[in-house]
Amino acid sequence: MEAGASTGTRTTRFMMEGVGARVIRGPEWKWGKQDGGEGHVGTVRNFESPEEVVVVWDNGTAANYRCSGAFDLRILDSAPTGVKHDGTMCDTCRQQPIFGIRWKCAECGNYDLCSICYHGDKHHLRHRFFRIATPGSERVLLEPRRKSKKIGIRGIFPGARVVRGVDWQWEDQDGGNGRRGKVNEIQDWSAASPRSAAYVIWDNGAKNLYRVGFEGMADLKVVSDAKGQTVYRDHLPLLGEQGPGRTGPHGLQIGDQVNVDLELEIVQSLQHGHGGWTDGMFECLGTTGTVVGIDEDHDIVVSYPSGNRWTFNPAVLTKVQIPVPVTSSSSDNQTFAVGDLVQICHDIEKIKLLQRGHGEWAEAMAPTLGKIGRVQQIYHDGDLKVEVCSTSWTYNPQAVTKVASSDGSVPGNSSGERLSALLKKLFETHVSGDVNEELVKTAANGDATKCEECLKRPEADVNGVFAGHTALQAASQNGHLEVIKILLRFSADVEMEDKDGDRAVHHAAFGDEPGVMALLAGAGADLNARNKRRQTALHIAVNKGHAGVVRTLLELGCHPSLQAVPAVLKYLGGESLRGIATVQVTGCSTQPPKLKRVYASLATCGSLRGDSAAASQGLAQSPSRHCSDNTKLMMTIRFLSRKLFHFCRI
Q1: What residue ranges carry the coiled-coil annotation (predicted)?
Q2: C-alpha pair distances (Å), 453 with each of 333, 357, 445, 486, 504
Q3: Distance CA 473, CA 537 (A)
Q4: 525 band by pLDDT with thresholds 50, 70 and 90
Q5: Cα separation of 52 and 44, whole Å?
Q6: Euclidean distance between CA atoms 126 and 123, whole angstroms
Q7: CA gap 343, 364 in Å, rounded
Q8: pTM for the complete prediction?
């Protein structure tokens, strides 16, 4: 592992959201119409240095731009880079997890949006939101969308006319250099890289999927651009700008001082796969370094007084705790350290004033007033990141009072009695309150023991609702079988609906949980129930590409024909089903992976064998040669196959 520039480039890639991000011009743009004009889109190709990034615009222009000190670019969409927020779900479109930028409502207790829904004006426009660029990064509080300016974006979007681009490597699929085609849809090149490709219909009749952002590649160049959605320009993050609290594993962030305190043999072992070990790294032992970067693998880049930079496994490093003296609201000098227990100011008007310029105030912070929390992080300006009421907020140090140190000592009380009382109070703040909230949260987290304890409390309601969902719905979507068994034992209602009309079976389909589906079926759940969008669990499973759930539902005897099939075809036929059919007919190698899995499942469920296209044609012509004795299944597969064959002929 070499110290220096190569590490800096890897660091920059992580810090700046990664190669493949889709960008528009930023606030300090001074390059005329290289990009095609305000709102035109390009792709991050690579980083030349921590200060310089190469962008290929959709119009084909490629150039270097500033991403440090001065910011030429804004990040429109980081989903193509693969950045995702595990454990989250968009509360409008149900994308799970959220890819790209996460937008969290600051006014509501637990409400998230993906970028498409945020800029699409979902949820209340008067509510303020936090922008969370990457998992673990600091929340940035934004103005309400109602007060903000929207601009249109243009580039490679449905309806655009395109020719082959700088990274073209698909021979003459387009009919030859200079031949044109029309973008039909923006799709995922892979499941890990959403919105990173365009499905193009060439003038010669060929159709295929091409890279627009995947790994920074640009297979296409636009000759007549098209409109995308409108976006809140000033809410988009600047490419390269560092938030005040971006953190890596183990709570490390840029600027932290760290030591290597482990034995040499252990360090060398832990370094395998994390930059390795060289003799030059002996300077790190016994010397304090400064974190200067977090690379795309979440390894930590540390700078030393010699000027060298080395990359470490975060498990090797120990953060040096530097006490930060601050003045409390009672005018006494306080020194905070990570792990200290603190009490939040209970005066709402006072804390609103104190929070100005120190993380700001949000109405969602109101439940924390007067509560006990634990210091998670100390920023360089003295502000504190405090875990309180099962969430984390940034506080002005004058808005909190230290009640216990991280070593267990209590100011002004050596007996430890006050600490015991405070710890009990801290525990109660996490588990007291609405029993329905606690039940739903423990079910969602898969904590079977706590779930059962909640249900044994006299005020507990097994069908109680929190954040619009019951415990059974939350556990079903996350696949927690033991929790579901406990809930069913306590007579949970399997037919309860959420605000969208979704029941537990719908949530299991969303979460790709075939085992849960079987368990719910055994409890008498209606597998053919429809939500308010007239979708059954089978519709959702097919649309999401969850082949295991599709197979399980068919085996459990749900009704996929009659009125249900047209709805499936509506969701698949206009987009992906047409795509899979044309791909098979034209002989292209690219096939939407989720449909390939689902169609394979549909094909094999009825003892079909072989290529899905051949199976569909054979089944359409002579279903009796391929079908099992399951008549219902046979009819379903035959119907879908004929529809697919029909699309092939179009």
Answers
A1: none
A2: 43, 42, 14, 11, 22
A3: 13
A4: very high
A5: 11
A6: 9
A7: 17
A8: 0.42
Block residue for tokens 């969308």: 145
Nearest-angstrom CA–CA distance, 590 and 182: 17
DSSP three-state, residue 407? coil
- Supply the pLDDT for residue 297: 62
Q: Which pairing describes strands 207-211 and 257-260: parallel, antiparallel, or unpaired?
A: unpaired
Question: How far apart are alpha carbons 361 and 192 in whole angstroms?
Answer: 35
The single residue listed with the structure tokens 């190469």 is 54
Closest CA to 582 of 593, 597, 592: 592
Contact call for residues 108 and 131 (beta carbons, < 8 A): no
Q: How far is the C-alpha of 217 from the C-alpha of 197, rounded, in Å?
A: 10
Beta carbons of 641 and 616 less than 8 angstroms apart: yes
- pLDDT band with cut points at 50, 70 and 90 for residue 469: confident
458 token code pair: 């006299």
- Give 18-32 as a 3 state SS string: CCCCEEEECCCCCCC
Here the tokens at position 554 are 């068919």
**At how many degrees (to 10) do helices 435-445 and 471-478 cross?**
10
Contact 636, 568 (CB under 8 A): no
Give 3-state DSSP helix, strand, coil % of the chain, rounded to 5.
35, 25, 45
- Look up residue 608 and give its amino acid: L
